[in-house]
């Protein structure tokens, strides 16, 4: 059946029912794609781009042992237990002043992967920025 739309003729009942079925399926696929959506939003930056977020206390450093997107997903869905566990083990937290000073003073541009999960900016150190 070919669906056509005309502003002058209303849709048939079959067309309306098909559209309702599609709308009911949408939330399920949206939940399944949160990780993929977050993965597509990961960017790279140097310290100078992230420093303003550190100054407003919104920068969260993620250990390289963890999957940045998995942590972002847990933050987005407010999984307190997972986040608390990572914080207790030192894998997630605000960067220490000593580390921040090293990033500022380094003659080389330190690279980071980051993703924004409001109000936070989650970052992971990388060896070098892509050119």
Characterization of the model:
With 131 residues, this protein is α+β, with helices and mostly antiparallel strands. The chain has a domain at 41-126. Helices cover 48% and strands 18% of the residues. It is built from 6 helices and 5 strands, in the order ααβαβααβαββ. The chain has helices spanning 13-32, 34-40, 47-55, 68-76, 80-88, 97-105, and strands at residues 43-46, 59-62, 92-93, 111-117, 120-126. Strands 1-4-5-2-3 form a 5-stranded mixed β-sheet. The longest helix is centred in the N-terminal third of the chain and has 20 residues, at 13-32. The radius of gyration is 22 Å and the shape is globular. The N and C termini lie far apart (50 Å). Mean pLDDT is 81; it is low at 1-11.
Question: What secondary-structure arrangement, pairings included, does this model have?
Answer:
Elements lengths: L12 H20 L1 H7 L2 E4 H9 L3 E4 L5 H9 L3 H9 L3 E2 L3 H9 L5 E7 L2 E7 L5
Parallel strand pairs: 2-5
Antiparallel strand pairs: 1-4, 2-3, 4-5
Helix pairs in contact: 2-4
Mean pLDDT: 81
Following the backbone from N to C, one meets helices and strands in this order, namely HHEHEHHEHEE
Coarse structural class: alpha+beta
* Distance N to C terminus: 50 Å
What summary fits the major beta sheet?
5 strands, mixed
Structural Rg:
22 Å
Shape: globular
Low-pLDDT stretches are: 1-11
Query: Helical stretch count?
Result: 6
Q: Strand-residue fraction?
A: 15-25%
What helical percentage do the residues reach?
A: 40-55%
Physical arrangement of strands within the biggest beta sheet:
1-4-5-2-3
Based on DSSP secondary structure assignment, what is the total number of beta strands? 5
């Amino acid at each position: 059946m070919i669906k056509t739309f005309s502003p002058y003729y209303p849709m048939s009942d079959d067309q309306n029912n098909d559209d309702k079925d599609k709308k009911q399926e949408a939330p399920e696929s949206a939940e399944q794609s949160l990780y993929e959506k977050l993965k597509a939003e990961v960017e790279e930056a140097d310290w100078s781009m992230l420093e303003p977020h550190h100054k407003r206390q919104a920068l969260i450093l993620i250990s390289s042992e963890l999957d940045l997107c998995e942590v972002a997903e847990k933050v987005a869905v407010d999984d307190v237990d997972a986040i608390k566990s990572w914080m207790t083990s030192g894998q997630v937290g605000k960067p220490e002043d000593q580390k921040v000073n090293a990033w500022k003073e380094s003659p080389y541009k330190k690279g980071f992967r980051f993703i924004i999960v409001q109000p936070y900016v989650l970052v992971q150190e990388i060896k070098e920025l892509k050119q």
